Every structure is written in C-alpha cells, then in structure tokens.
Task: structure prediction
Amino acid sequence: MELHYASAPENASIARLASRYQMFVDGKFIDGQGPDLESTNPATGKPLAAVSSASAADVDTAVAAARRAYENVWSAMPGAERGKYLFRIARGIAERARELAVLETLDNGKPIRETRDFDVPTAAQHFFYYAGWADKVQHAGFGSRPGALGVAAQVIPWNFPLLMAAWKLAPALAAGNTVVIKPAETTPLSILVLAEIIADAGLPAGVVNILPGAGDIGAALIEHDGVDKVAFTGSTAVGKKIQHSLAGTHKKLTLELGGKGANIVFADAAQDQAVEGVVNGIFFNQGQVCCAGSRLLVQESIAEEFLDRLKTRAAALRVGDPLDKNTDVGAINSAAQLTKITELCAAGSNEGAGRWTSPAMLPEQGFFVAPTIFTDATASMRISREEIFGPVLAVSTFRTPDEAVAKANNTPYGLSAGVWTEKGSRAMGVAAGLKAGVVWDNTFNKFDPTAAFGGYGESGFGREGGPSGLAAYLNTDDEGVL
Ligand code: NDP
Result:
C-alpha cells in the first residue's frame, strides 16, 4: 500500500526574520565596514536578509575587544561564575528553540525535522555540558595549573551553522578564553540570533564577538597577531592553508576538516537496521556532513539483496520544502555547492560507475539533488576519493574483514566509519583496524557533547566534545588523557 503525506509546513514567521542583521562586537550590535552580504533561502534561491559584514579594520576592533575582556574580566572570573553564563546561554537557546530551528532551516536549507530535533537541541546540550566543566578544569587531569590560552579565533562552515558555533564557543568560554568567531558567508543568521541570547545572558562585553564576512575575513582573523588559538572547521584545502600560515607562530591550532567515511556492512548484519543506518549516514543533512558515510562497503554475498533494499528505502525519501515536517531531504546550501555535486556525479557516470537516482520529484526552484547511489565504484574514481558533500553514495563490495579494512582506510581522510555486524568480536576487531577518529557500531551519525570528535590525516587534528574538547582551549599538552 502506498502512503501519501499531506504537507505539514512549519510557519516561516516563527523565525522572526529581520530584513537586516548587524555584527556583534564588544557587546554591541554594530555595522561593519565591509559590504552587506545577502543571505539566500536555498529552497527558493531568493534573498532572505541583508547582513552587515566585517572589514580587516573590524577584525582589529573585535580582537582588541576580546583581549580587553580576557584581561580585565573573563580570565580572572572564577569558573563557577563563568559556568553560570554558559547555563544561561543554554537555557536561552532552549527557550528560543523553535525560532532558531525555523531560521536555520530558512537560511541553510536543511529539513525542519533536523533543525528542530538535532541541530538546536544539540547546540543547547553543548552549552549545558561545558557549563558543568567551567569550575572543574583545575581538577580534571589537565596538569597542575591549566590555564586559558587567551583570545580564540574561530571559523565555522555552513553545514551546521548554530551547532558548529556551539561546538566552538562552549568549550572555549568554559576554559576561560574569549572569542572572535566568523560564520560562513551563506549562513550567518542563526549565530546572530545566538548573539541576542548571549547579550540577554549578560555576558560581559567583548567575551564573544561575531564577525560575518567572506573567506578573506576568516584569513585576516586567524592570521591576526592578537589571537592565541585558532579553531577551524571546513574544507581540507582551506585547513591546509591555515596550517601553513600558522606554522612557526605561538598559536595553538585545531582543524576539523573533510572526510570520506566508510559504512561497512557484513553479511550477518541486521539488514533493515543497516539500511536505515546507511540512509542516515549519507542522506542526513543532504550528505553535507564531514563525517558522512559517503562510501558503502557491503559484503559480496549480500550485495545484491542489500542494494535492492537500500534503493527501495532511498526511493521513499521525501525531497522538497525544508519547512515541511514530512521532508527527509531538503535543499543544498548554495548554488556553488549544487554545481560541485552535479559535476562530481557527472564524473562518476563518465568514469563508469552504475548510477541510480531516486525518482523523487524535485521542486522547480531552489537547489535540490535527488538521492543518488553509484554502484561498482572503484577506488580510483573521483566519487570514491573526493568529498562530494551531497546526497551521493559510492558503493563497492568486499569479501573478507581484512579487505574491508584495507578499502575503508584507502583514503587520505580519517574522520568516521561505521561497522554493521551482529558479532561483537568482529565489530571490535574491524574497528581496531580502522584509521578513523570515530567508529560507530551498528549505528551512525550519533553525537553527544560528552564524546570526543575529530580526525586523522587530512581530516585534521585536535578533538571537539568531551574533556578533550576542553583541553584544546587550555595550556596543557595532555589532550588525549581523558
Ligand atoms: P571552506 O573551507 O572554504 O569554508 C569554511 C569556512 O572557512 C567558511 O567560514 C569560509 O568563509 C572560511 N574560509 C574560506 N577561506 C578561508 C581562508 N583562506 N582562511 C580562513 N577562513 C576561510 O568551505 P566551503 O564553504 O567553500 O565549501 C567547499 C567544500 O569544502 C565543500 O564542497 C565541502 O566539500 C567542504 N566542506 C567541508 C566541511 C567539513 O566540515 N568537513 C564544511 C564545509 C565545507 P566563507 O563562507 O565566506 O567562504
């Protein structure tokens, strides 16, 4: 029996969208000296709001404000007091959760189901979690006198705008640092509402400064002499540039970069459960996830049956209006990203992989890609090697656990992997051989503020989440101790 869903759109006015947003510097909302940016709704391709952007001079102003706040207020404040501000921010996010979810969906294009049930609650959880750490830093095995680093420069991407802001801000503040943060050019709105929450929480002026702007402002910020710590999430290409430009400086660096995660499905796996995990691994957030399970390695003996089930399931995903509560796959974040995905899909077809595309009807306007699965993807194909950052899965087969591990590790990245098997010893044995910062067993894309997240190789270094995430903002070398 085929089920049809009536549309159930969330009300866009809940986002309380303004026509123009300002930067947040030294506790005030001010105009930057850069040109206004235009934020676009990826589901329609139409403008959403103007956003004042920073110039290089604004970077100087923001870093100076963060330095004053660090020296005069924040570094001297007892941890328990700092923690109170973080609790207030967490509660502020929870109180404005619905507004933030709708705004994030409008600005990013991801389904309301995801912003409502994942992005916004997880952002609040990060502040709650690190609020609890603020008064325990001295007693947690970070050395005899762990201290804050000073001013942290943070640059974040567009795939989880609010959540990435929370991942960066909460541990930095809990550890006693002040921050200047640059959101991605295409998704600056939710962090500017977070700025209102921060202001309402009474955070002292200059402790958090938010500078919308393009990549050149990100570069000016991380290269600024007045910053002590750089934390970047984004592409490996930009991460490499940052590492070069910081070499030889005193700045402590963490990089969360790209990935090409493998989901490994053994013949004894619970197949329906594994299908759900593979679908979640690659179609969650339209596949625009650094730890996406963008490669499927399936054991040869079940490959045909598993792929049939997978295609049947993927064909049932509803693609369309991100504000519709029934939507599974929303819009791609930008026209540029859509072009990149389209180009890599064409490369997959040209290089000889078998292409399956969901029959889902795509909206006539906006940036949409139907779920796509490439079979017989060989290791040399671009779709197997490059981060596509879209709803596109590359599938190949294996016969033995050793072959699965070798194929999964055949990538310069090392961020995530999934293992699907009913046998615990096999899961543990395979996980031990995988060069990935996170390995999920019979699940995928599970995130928790208490758990460390980060990569190897071209996926970057340093950890976010858990006590290790705090260590990245402290003058201790014991990053891996907890
Ligand atoms: P970028 O790495 O260019 O962007 C990430 C952030 O860095 C943005 O805030 C960006 O600003 C900023 N930035 C850009 N150039 C510099 C620079 N030289 N110095 C400092 N900051 C800079 O990713 P894109 O948004 O261009 O996406 C390109 C590809 O990167 C995607 O197709 C995807 O494959 C990958 N990507 C991976 C992510 C991950 O988490 N692994 C996240 C995002 C992208 P601005 O927004 O203005 O460009």
